[in-house]
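Example 5.3 — Amino acids transporter
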Amino acid sequence: MPVVFVGVSCVLLVVPVVSEPTAVLAGALMTLAGVPVYLALVRSRPAAVERLSTKFTHTCQKMFLSAVEDKEE
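Solution (predicted C-alpha cells):
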C-alpha cells in the first residue's frame, strides 16, 4: 500500500506542474509569501502580538461562553 500512496502522490504533484506550470508557480509564490509573516509574527511573538492574541481569545471565550471552568475539588 505505501508504494501505491507514493505513486499517487507523485502523479498528483507532477500532473499540475506539466499541465499548468504558471498556476503552480503562482500558488507556490503565494505559499512562500507566508514565510516572512510566520517568522515575524508567529515564531518569535512580539509582546504586543501576544497581548492582542490573549485579549482576542478572552473576548471570544466570553462572547461564545466557551471558557474552561476551574474544577473544584
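Remark. Residues 21-43 form the longest helix (23 residues).
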